[in-house]
Design brief:
By secondary structure, the protein is of the alpha/beta class. The chain has helices spanning about 5-20, 25-30, 90-100, 110-125, 135-150, 205-210, 235-245, 265-270, 295-305, 325-340, 340-365, 390-395, 400-410, 430-450, and strands spanning about 55-60, 60-65, 70-75, 130, 155-160, 170-175, 180, 195-200, 215-220, 250-255, 275-280, 290-295, 370-375, 375-380, 415, 420-425.
Length: about 450
């Protein structure tokens, strides 16, 4: 249906247009000779246009680049800025802590921490909480804890899951149905099959088969896959995961870092999940680095009873900057005043408008694509029906097509997440913002398909 020659011509044109529109970004990138990969973090080279957009300032749902161009931001820091850029309550709380009260990092608790823990319990149901600076760290520490408590060495994840840069998660299902190293895994400390098992999302039989080995401490999973396109759980799947894990004496860790978009208590509250551990990061600090993991009351008591475990000093859990006064103040302000229950209702309503508009465009052009929504997050994939697991979603990738749509959009002031076709709604995202996306999206499809 898509003329690949036409696609190539349009992609070349749009990249040339991008270079013309963003000369200052191009110059900054060319001059960045002291940065590995020319960027602060190498994944910033994942862009559709040949060099990254350099930001001058950002506020609410808008980003202004160094060439003075304004963009409606649906990427929102790949969830890190789901509260919007620099939300005023968060900025005020951080400013007060930094300028008035002082103490950016002290290795001492503040009263804000208990408020945040209580609020996370209200939202997600887990009884006891500990803080980190990233969800990756929270996942690492949760993994160490469940290994210690169960005496089992392995962690099971889903193929093409997202748990940050956790070594144990970089495994996919191979052609023989067993685990293999995820393509692109750099410098793995050991063969990932020595630390991990893997099952496809939505595959209870595969999960049962892997847990039958009796060596899995915990299943670490997203309640919906999010970093390979949104892959939603089928009816009964998550309940089946919980029943199977309990039957095999395996703990369940739910990672809500991205699926927090589902609602104020993430997918855990929305779907009534019962994890032993819950991990979250990014959005809860309004853009200030933070993460957290919660333990069920039973698991926390079980850990505290283990006098042989060093959970204070050299147990491999914790970091000097974790739980610092600034990040804790940011979490409290964001949860109390920005990402509120009422804000989520508006965000989800806006996302529904986005989803309906994209689906209408897909139908209008008779494209074999699908669009999936998870609360305030929505994403289209070049497959229909929607993929039911990570491997199917990975197989549906079309890099040139994705790049064309991304660079076409950015040239007309619309930012999507650079890693995939995800759009996220902040409390400040408007229906007018969504309609602007739809106008540009429709224009791109019309040019591409004729």
């Amino acid at each position: 249906m898509i003329d690949r020659n036409r696609l190539g011509e349009l992609l070349t044109r749009e990249r040339a247009t991008y270079a013309d529109l963003h000369p200052t970004s191009a110059r900054h990138y060319a001059d960045a000779t002291h940065l590995f990969g020319r960027v602060p973090m190498t994944w910033m080279n994942k862009n559709a246009a040949g060099f990254p957009l350099y930001v001058e300032r950002a506020r609410d749902s808008r980003v202004w680049d160094v060439d003075g161009r304004e963009h409606v931001d649906f990427a929102l820091g790949d969830t890190g800025a789901m509260a919007g850029h620099s939300p005023r309550p968060t900025v005020d709380a951080v400013h007060r802590r930094m300028s008035e009260l002082g103490g950016l990092t002290t290795m001492l608790p503040t009263a804000d921490a208990e408020w945040v823990g209580a609020e996370l319990t209200r939202r997600f149901g887990l009884a006891r909480w500990s803080f980190s600076l990233t969800a990756t760290d929270a996942n690492r520490w949760a993994i160490r804890l469940v290994r210690a408590l169960t005496g089992r060495p392995k962690i099971l994840v889903n193929a093409y899951c997202y748990h940050g840069s956790v070594d144990e998660s970089l495994i996919v299902v191979g052609p023989d149905g067993e685990g293999m190293m995820r393509p692109g895994n750099v410098g793995a400390p050991v063969d990932v099959t020595a630390t991990s098992r893997v099952a496809e999302f939505n595959d209870l039989e595969g999960l049962e088969r892997q847990l039958a080995h009796g060596d899995v401490a915990a299943v670490l999973m997203e309640p919906a896959l999010t970093n390979i396109g949104i892959v939603l759980p089928e009816d009964g799947y998550l309940a089946g995961v919980r029943e199977i894990t309990r039957r095999h004496g395996t703990l369940l860790i739910i990672d809500e870092t991205h699926t927090f978009s589902a609602g104020p208590g993430g997918a855990t509250a929305l779907w009534g999940l019962e994890p032993d551990v819950l991990v979250i990061g990014k959005a809860i600090g309004g853009g200030v680095p933070c993460g957290a993991y919660g333990l069920s009351d039973e698991l926390a008591s079980r850990a505290e009873e283990r006098t042989d475990l060093d959970l204070v000093d050299m147990g491999g859990v914790g970091g000097t900057l974790a739980g610092n006064p600034v990040s804790v103040a940011a979490m409290r302000a964001t949860l109390e005043h920005v990402l509120t229950d009422e804000a989520f209702a508006r965000m989800i309503e806006t996302a529904t408008t986005f989803t309906e508009g994209v689906q209408a465009a897909i139908d209008r052009h008779a494209l074999p694509w699908s669009v999936s929504q998870l609360g305030a997050r929505t994403e289209y994939r070049f497959a229909s029906p929607a993929p039911r697991n990570g491997s199917e979603s990975a197989a549906a990738a079309d890099e040139d097509l994705e790049d064309f749509l991304h660079v076409y959009l950015v040239n007309r002031g619309i930012l999507l997440t650079p890693f995939h076709n995800m759009a996220l709604m902040a409390p400040t995202t408007t229906v007018a913002d969504v309609q602007r996306h739809h106008e540009v999206f429709e224009a791109a499809l019309t040019e591409l398909l004729g």
